Amino acid sequence: MALKYIDELDLKDKRVMVRVDYNVPYDKEMNITDDTRITATLPTLNYCLENGAKLIIVSHLGRPKGQVKPSLSLKPVAVRLEEILGRAVKFIDTPLGEETIAFTKNMQSGDIVLFENIRFYPGEEKNDKALGELLAKHADVFINDAFAAAHRGHASNFAVTEFVPIVAAGFLLKNEIEYSEHTIQNAKRPFGAIIGGAKVSSKLDALNNIVNKVDFLIIGGGMAFTFLKAQGYSIGNSLLEEDLIDSAKEIMKKAKEKNVTLLLPVDIVGAPEFDNESPRGVYSIDSIPDNIIGLDIGPESIKLFAEEIKKAKTVIWNGPMGAFEMPNFATGTNEIAKVLAESHCLSIVGGGDSVTAVNQAGVADKITYISTGGGAFLEVLEGKVLPGIAALDRY
Ligand code: AMP
To answer: How far apart are the C-alpha atoms of 302 and 268, rounded to whole Å?
Structure first.
């Protein structure tokens, strides 16, 4: 792909529209409870400001479905951004009005505006050309720094690019492309993937793609039980996607043909109820009682997975090893996070739950790269070209 990056451009006195992902969580009083998504864009914003740009920031928040929903306004984000940057941020709730176009034309270098939630417009999620064209009236340069939204081709990250003379990726997007995409293509070997989470169905495309790239594939979480069932084990009341047993067999067959080491749990922690307080026990996978739900990987599985991870030069992780929201079933996920952090490999973690897990285990600073994308990261694992990145591919 032939992209330009922000640091290749002359931004002086230009109106630079930066598409960010400020899809931050609010509490009931609309206080921002986690501003990671805002701070993640600071390298790009500060670069623009240091280089004399006029900043026009565009984002979505939540799913207002084309309607104005005051509870999903970006106004609190403008206030927080002002505090973080230590400079005025003008919040504009009518981004597409004539008066706003006149306003942004008259901005001075160093001025900053944040537009209201772009998903308040029905054209956004429809990738409406007219909306893209209107947005482009505010911009001499378009920078996409919203990796977490890059798997969607919407008006503010796709249609708009058609109408702006210069488009490029910001620093956050650059990092994501380098760590996620480039690493998968050119990983130092041994290269492994750890895939977990509830369902095979949501990770099937990722598994089918990644099995072609890696030297080892570790499968944990609820999805492992469909694989164990495919191998003929009784899995009690654990999660099962019966219709995917054949797909699981196919993946195991592919792994064998390609000499990929595929590791599944050899023991599990289970309980009769999906409840943190339900009495738990450790069971070998060949003796899971009928009434037991497998909710975590067991100690022998942790050891087995750890040995493989320690041999690796590159590891990608997506999806927890168990129902880790319940502390009694979080050990497997936390231990794998620690093993990954302590290993000397290049480690990349993506997907909301795995990122929560490395934070929960207190090892986030020892992971080489933590992706800001959930769905977008998964689509990179699937080998897909993300529309928001493809739209920048014009040089
Ligand atoms: P995903 O969004 O597909 O990555 O799945 C994450 C969810 O999978 C988390 O909410 C976990 O609680 C859940 N999960 C992981 N392992 C299991 C399991 N063995 N049984 C039920 N749910 C699980």
So the answer is: 10
Mutate which of 292, 353, 356, 378 for ligand 1? The one with the most ligand atoms within 8 Å of its CB, which is 353
Catalytic status, residue 350: no
Q: Of 4, 69, 199, 338, which is the active-site residue?
A: 199
How do the pLDDT tens digits run along the chain, 395 residues long? Answer: 789 999 999 999 999 999 999 999 999 999 999 998 999 999 999 999 999 999 999 999 999 999 999 999 999 999 999 999 999 999 999 999 999 999 999 999 999 999 999 999 999 999 999 999 999 999 999 999 999 999 999 999 999 999 999 999 999 999 999 998 888 889 999 999 999 999 999 999 999 999 999 999 999 999 999 999 999 999 999 999 999 999 999 999 999 999 999 999 999 999 999 999 999 999 999 999 999 999 999 999 999 999 999 999 999 999 999 999 999 999 999 999 999 999 999 999 998 889 899 999 999 999 999 998 999 999 999 999 999 999 999 88
Q: Is the whole-model pTM more than 0.85?
A: yes
Active site residue 15: no
Q: Are 35 and 132 found together in one domain?
A: yes
Residue 325, ligand 1, Cβ within 6 A = yes
16, containing H or E segment: strand 15-19
DSSP codes joined into one string, 231-299: TT---TTS---GGGHHHHHHHHHHHHHTT-EEE--SEEEEESSSSTTSPPEEEETT---TTPEEEEE-H
Please give the distance, rounded to the nearest whole angstrom, from the Cα atom of residue 226 to the centre of ligand 1.
13
Q: Say how far apart CA 48 and CA 168 lie, in whole Å.
A: 13
Pair 254, 371 in one domain: yes
Give yes or no: residues 64 and 19 share one domain: yes
In a domain, 137, yes or no: yes
Q: Which atom of ligand 1 is nearest to the CA of 221?
A: 16
Provide the domain limits for residue 254.
187-381
Contact yes or no for 17/164 (Cβ under 8 A): yes
Q: Would 181 be classed as within a structural domain? A: no
- Single out the residue of 173, 174, 273, 263 nearest to residue 221, CA to CA: 263
